Amino acid sequence: MKIVVVTGSPHRAGTSALLADKFIEGAQSNGHEVFRFNAAFENINPCRGCDACGMNGPCVIPDAISEKLIQKLVDCDMIVLVTPLYYFGFSAQIKMVIDRFYSRTGHIHGKKSALLATSWNNDSWTMTALKAHYTRLCEYMEWRSQGAIYATGCGTRSMIERSDFPQKAFELGKSV
Hints:
Elements (H helix, E strand, L loop, with lengths): L1 E6 L7 H15 L3 E6 L25 H12 L2 E7 L7 H9 L4 H4 L3 E7 L9 H14 L2 E8 L5 H5 L3 H11 L1
Parallel strand pairs: 1-2, 1-3, 3-4, 4-5
Helix pairs in contact: 1-7
């Protein structure tokens, strides 16, 4: 299976990066091909809403999403979104990528998906808005979610390393 992992944290060795690393390790141990796109370290731009693509054509924005990512998303079997929780939602970097799905919406429908998310807070409501957004995204894109990891109480690398969330990410990657 071809898997695209899109990360959205500006911290190269942060909490969500660890989950991505472990998921990828698990998926590759099961023979899957993985392409990783670190949105925070690429030259990317938000959708302009110009509709030049007509939801089925090249985006007019010449950036890393157009040049490196979009065709990988079209060709893959599974999309994994990895984000720290920023004000109860996806990070801006992930949100820019999601908005740019627009240029190939029909071609990105029907994939398998997963979500890996981290947060400092561990209150019961911490991930509610992110869970709802991911659920609606899966419904709209007709994605079949293979799972989600909501790593609450993991505000630092040492906090997440002491948790069972990295192992859960590895197991999720191995199970797909």
